[in-house]
Amino acid sequence: MATFIDIGDPADPRLADYVSLRDVNLRKSLEAEHGLFIAEGAKVIRRACEAGYPPRSFLLAPRWIDGLRDLFDGLDVEVFVVSEALAEQVTGFHVHRGALASMCRQIRWSAADLMEARRLVVCEDIVDHTNVGAIIRCAAGIGWDGVLLAPRAADPLYRRAIKTSMGTVFQLPWARLDDWAGGLHELRDYGFTVAAMALSDDSVSLDEFAADLRHNPRKVALLMGTEGTGLSAHWISQADVVVRIPMAGGVDSLNVAAAAAVACYELREADQPFGVRGQSSGYK
């Protein structure tokens, strides 16, 4: 059974998993070393548990205990009960949802597992965690099969990415490419048309490419570039087609997550109901 422990000292060593959640560099090293990630908010905690990620511990303000009590049944886990003021001292920010959980990190999919998919978003060096979370959320919501990440892209299991994704990082298959330089060749070998979202002289409009896909259905891997500079010249050169979103009002581009949402919607397969693929647990 779960053990409920009242804690009043922010320096209590049992709270080590929750220290300085806003310090990205510290969290990267701590979470990798101890194989954990942090779920924030009752809804996200529930989704992580229901997806099968084992909890290490919970950090809860008293008002959240009853709403999550069913999750504790049969778990041999510590539930640290703290005031919201103490939670803020430990984490370094106001935990307005009053509920955190330290979860065991698991790598559930490899790039090879996703090669039988029909629709993939491929993120090159997108370093903002909220953008990665938002892209995963839109891919899941619009019915795409998964997300591939270049080696330097942000961690989908970082707290802010999880929060922005509303927990869809637990349901949509995602994996990292091992080879940034040559990884796109593998996509082509598995029958994907590799489409780069970029501004270039030889680009075609998104609606033109979408019309071509409706006429000639095929697998698509959609490349999205890093904030600011966009896709590298190396990745653009390996694409089968370069695609742009037609813009107006003197605006040349959208935020990468917004652009991904527009492109995912336009390039979805017409015969695929929303959410079906997003509920998949993988391709193993």
Automatic annotation (TrEMBL):
The keyword Phosphoprotein does not apply. GO terms for molecular function: RNA binding; RNA methyltransferase activity. GO terms for biological process: methylation; RNA processing. Residues 120-265 form the tRNA/rRNA methyltransferase SpoU type domain. Keywords: Methyltransferase, Transferase. The keyword Cell cycle does not apply. It holds the Pfam family SpoU_methylase. This is RNA methyltransferase.
